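Input structure tokens:
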């Protein structure tokens, strides 16, 4: 049998080539898991930023809704209720003036009217989106006050030619005003309820998104740990294989160099 003898330089070169090929294999094997880990981290960061941005936007929306409830709907509902009470009080004072033949209740009624008119002005400032409707209410309110005041004063001065007809027209104006105020109050209340429900839904959505984000983070951490553990195990196997390969190369080199020494 013919033996092929290699010089020490050739053996050293072969050993280096084997080591380099082993290192290249290790690098190639470890690159794929690392790419997966980097990809997972990138996806997690993107999802986290997207969910966080959406949650922050919803939080600002919820804050705006709560501010609208506090600064808009509550004050408007309170003021419109107060004007309903003033309107009832004005009607009572006009009737009292006519029944008693006294002018003082009319002065008191005018005080209520002025306060109610000021409230409508405040409502226009608070609720500019419905300023046109509020102005219409204010005009109806002014028209009723003028008609009721004129009717009461004419009655006190015995100037009413047709009292039943005048009273009927005054009551028609009053009922129309009450219906308008009632519709405005109901629509304002519906807007209040709708905004409150929307705010509650936003809070619930933020809660669910927070829970979902927490679960996603846990899943991501589990997957990341899985990939890292597999990568570490793979690196350990590759290192063991390289060590075995170097040992075999050293043994083979020793076997090949042994005859040359005799």
């Amino acid at each position: 049998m013919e033996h092929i003898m290699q010089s020490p330089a050739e053996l050293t070169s072969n050993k280096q080539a084997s080591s380099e090929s082993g290192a290249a294999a290790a690098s190639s094997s470890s690159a794929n898991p690392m790419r997966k880990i980097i990809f997972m981290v990138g996806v997690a960061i993107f999802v986290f930023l997207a969910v966080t941005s959406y949650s922050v936007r919803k939080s600002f929306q919820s804050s705006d809704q709560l501010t609208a409830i506090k600064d808009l709907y509550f004050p408007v509902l309170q003021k419109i209720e107060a004007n309903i009470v003033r309107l009832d009080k004005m009607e009572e004072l006009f009737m009292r003036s006519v029944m008693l033949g006294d002018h003082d209740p009319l002065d008191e009624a005018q005080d209520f009217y002025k306060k109610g008119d000021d409230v409508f002005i405040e409502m226009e400032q608070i609720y500019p989106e419905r300023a046109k409707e509020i102005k219409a209410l204010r005009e109806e309110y002014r028209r009723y006050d003028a008609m009721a005041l004129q009717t009461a004063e004419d009655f006190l001065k015995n100037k009413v030619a047709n009292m039943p007809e005048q009273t009927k027209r005054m009551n028609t104006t009053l009922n129309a005003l009450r219906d308008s105020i009632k519709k405005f109050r109901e629509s304002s209340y519906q807007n209040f309820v709708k905004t409150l429900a929307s705010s509650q839904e936003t809070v619930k959505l933020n809660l669910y998104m927070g829970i979902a984000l927490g679960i996603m983070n846990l899943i991501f951490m589990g997957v990341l740990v899985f990939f890292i553990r597999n990568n570490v195990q793979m690196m350990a196997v590759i290192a063991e294989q390289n060590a075995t390969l170097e040992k075999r190369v050293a043994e083979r080199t020793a076997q090949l160099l042994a005859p040359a020494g005799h």
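Confidence is low (pLDDT under 50) at residues 1-30. The helical segments are 8-100, 104-126, 131-156, 163-261.
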